Amino acid sequence: MKPLCPRHKRLKREGRLQAAKHWLPKYEGKSIVKGYSKHFGVNKICAVLELRMLEYEIPEDYLEKLKADELLQWKLKEKRKREKELNQRDDMFQYSDETFYFIDGNASNGAQYGLTWNELECESEYLYEQIDSEELPF
């Protein structure tokens, strides 16, 4: 049986708020938002909102900064994802050009050989032809 993560990280908001009443007086760290988010396994924006529910004073500009940071992180992640997709696409077509889908090599006279785009289209049409269900053995 796979071990579960700690109980305090599996709690829903209501449970976290109740558990936080007992945990917060024991907390000795510098940043209560960071400690709350790590202890209960939530992001910092959620930690700020829940700490406010527990009547802790957290400045509005701190919350806005967290939201801006999260948006920036999301944009960077999307940018990295797009770059990765482009690199994979470039790697996929490394051995192709406008004539050949896949260049297998060069002949002794320098001419390229491989699978052309036209051959690929003909082959794919053959693969996706309608199959008559009466011809199937089962």
Explain what the structure shows.
The radius of gyration is 29 Å and the shape is elongated. It has two domains: 63 residues, no CATH class; 48 residues, no CATH class. A two-stranded antiparallel ribbon has the order 1-2. By secondary structure, it is mainly alpha-helical. It has six helices and two strands. Helix content is 57%, strand content 9%.
How are the secondary structure elements laid out?
Elements: H1 7-10, H2 13-23, H3 32-40, H4 44-53, H5 60-92, E1 100-106, E2 112-116, H6 117-127
Helix pairs in contact: 3-4
How many discrete domains? 2
Relative helix content: 55-70%
Q: Sketch the topology as an H/E string, one letter per element.
A: HHHHHEEH
Query: Which parts are unreliable, with pLDDT below 50 for 5 consecutive residues or more?
Result: none
Please identify the oligomeric state: single chain
Strand order of the largest sheet: 1-2
Total of DSSP H or I helical runs spanning 4+ residues: 6
By helix and strand content, what is the structural category? Answer: mainly alpha
Q: Major sheet: size, sense and barrel closure?
A: 2 strands, antiparallel
Distance between the termini: 41 Å
| Average pLDDT rating | 85
Number of strands: 2
Gyration radius, in Å: 29 Å
Shape: elongated
Beta fraction: 5-15%
